[in-house]
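Re: weekly structure request thread

Next one in the queue (498 aa):
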Amino acid sequence: MAEFVGAIDQGTTSTRFIIFTRLGKLLTSYQLEHEQIYPKPGWVEHNPTEIWEKTQLVIQKALDFASIDANQLAAVGITNQRETTVVWDKRTGKPYYNAIVWQDTRTDKICKSLGGDVGPDRFREITGLPLATYFAGPKLMWLLENIEGLRQDANAGHALFGTIDSWLIWNLTGEHIIDVTNASRTLLMNLADLSWDLDLLHEMHIPAQMLPKIRPSSDPHFYGMTKRDGPFGTGIPICGDLGDQQAALYGQNCFSPGEAKNTYGTGCFMLMNTGEKMVPSNSGLLTTLGYQIGKEKPIYALEGSIAITGALVQWLRDNLGIIQESPEIEVLARTVEDNGDVYFVPAFSGLFAPYWRSDARGAIVGLTRYANKGHIARAALEATAYQTREVLEAMNKDSGVTLKTLKVDGGMVVNELLMQFQADVLQVPVVRPKVNETTALGAAYAAGLAVGFWKNQEDLRKNWQIEKRWEPAMGKQQSEKLYQQWLKAVTRTFNWIE
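Done, posted below.
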């Protein structure tokens, strides 16, 4: 009897397989990191073959640790790092090149060329997105222009494109699929009719036969059944698929317009449900797909994307060595009472929302002889909170809705110093749910709904419970003073790249 639902959570730095119960509780999880490849400044790559190998291994290990058989899984959902771009040969299954990661900035010239006299908003009305290095379409253009033999194979119908979800679904089932949320991050999909836009494909010189079929995020017709020679060893329906931030929106039960969540991972991503209405942004946000359940109408969202948050802690650990393990950042930051007037703007890959400045680079400002590594650690944590406030202010302006409470999830929400400072900077309560793995949970929910494991969204709402709530403890005047200093620091990062 199928008692559980599984979720593959393929993130920027690691891959996990998580098994959930009917109550939405985590039964077991297994996680493995994969290599981060930096061939040149601003270039970020992953090995797709390594990701597939690690995916198979985490599935097998999680099933072993839970002491359950794959047949006890009703369905499997997938959630993934979005925009990261893979091309592979459907005859051999081998990638033509490493996956180009969402953080990668090599397509800056391509984006500027596509914008022409109009600029970065040239395709925004169609796609909801600005022309930026973040998105998959320009990355695919770069691959077609630079990888020998790829364009010829693409024209002949041999080369396939996908984001990481497509790569995993193809390896698991043999089907070439992408869901609406991931498709909405390519700069190639028409946001209104949820189809590949032929004019955009023509502009970017992308052969249409490379692209996967676009399907709902929760699909009762299934994307495919897992191959018996794969990691499950039996036929399990793959029928849920959402980009990681949309999966977190769904896992956090943000089903009503105006509900929002913020995920703190490698980057930081705030999404607000805008219902069946596409809300154009005049404040530097993205209009994107929130989710689509079966034949229901698509639900849209506003998104504020921040490139570097948790990755800044990793940078302090791996590049500077001022901490040995990521959780030590909170201990180090608590050795000082405040930031000592030090501000850290982590524009390592330029600035995303609300600025979209690819010419920016990271900066630590306000340094004096008084500053020590505790102040730098605190400034690194505070950077996440300040960037979140910038996004929230833009979201309030675009949506006309003033957020009353912020639901949070992701690896950094265990950092209580950060969560309290986040409430202080925003001047609104911050709420952490009992099940923190909301990204994987959202993918599991999408898959479970498709097979009737959960009947409807009311079943899912019953599973959501608060673990902790942080109320603002800092005065509004002090909060505003700190924030204004942050905004000054951000301007120091502009125009670094000519």
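The CA atoms of residues 150 and 456 lie 44 Å apart. The first helix runs from residue 48 to 66.
Next request, please.
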